[in-house]
Amino acid sequence: MTFDAGTFIDLEESLAAEFESMFAERTFMNSIGHSVPLKCYVHSLPVKQGDDDVLLDEHLPEPYIVSEINGGKKATDDDAHIVTVAVIICVCDDNTARHGHQDILSIIQRIVERFGKNPVLGGRFVMRPALDWSLSDEDTYPYYYGGLLMQFEVHAIEKEDELA
């Protein structure tokens, strides 16, 4: 199977779009108690906006997923780039039963299942089988965090001259 070459930026944006699509029908609580869709960000959270005294859903980053490229490597001219992407997940659950970790686990499970069934992303990137995930072991109540480390093949641009 051949793929069109995509850029590293395309990979981050494709992953955020995929997460947005995957979780479009699911809502989670934000820090002011409203049930809202999961927000998907590329590389980092947006700069905080709005008045601290007026909390609106659109001013709060959570619940969220951030897809952030950590780095990559390319062994030879003919090899694809192997790009490592960190996926950071945050939900808010102020219930004293402290089940926010279950939301994190369900999000991770859905991502693992999606790429286990079909490792191709956007017709241009292929996730490698190695995948690490974890939950935060720090007490950050009412916020809960988890993440994944994923590796994708980003196909290299072909040389124009065979002798080069």
What features would you describe in this structure?
- The protein is of the alpha+beta class and 164 residues long.
- The protein has one domain (8-46, 53-154): 2-Layer Sandwich (Alpha-Beta Plaits).
- The chain has two helices and eight strands.
- It has helices spanning 8-22, 100-117, and strands at 27-29, 35-37, 39-42, 64-73, 81-92, 120-121, 125-135, 143-154.
- The strands form two sheets. The protein has a six-stranded mixed β-sheet with strand order 3-4-5-8-7-6, covered by helices on one side. Strands 1-2 form a two-stranded antiparallel ribbon.
- The longest helix has 18 residues, at 100-117.
Low-confidence stretches: none
Q: State the distance separating the first and last CA atoms.
A: 25 Å
Mean pLDDT: 88
Number of continuous helical runs = 2
User: How does the major sheet shape up?
Assistant: 6 strands, mixed
Q: Please trace the helix and strand order, writing H or E for each element.
A: HEEEEEHEEE
Fill in the CATH topology: Alpha-Beta Plaits
Task: Using the alpha-carbon principal axes, give the shape.
Answer: elongated
List the helices and strands and how they pair.
Blueprint: H1 8-22, E1 27-29, E2 35-37, E3 39-42, E4 64-73, E5 81-92, H2 100-117, E6 120-121, E7 125-135, E8 143-154
Parallel strand pairs: 3-4
Antiparallel strand pairs: 1-2, 4-5, 5-8, 6-7, 7-8
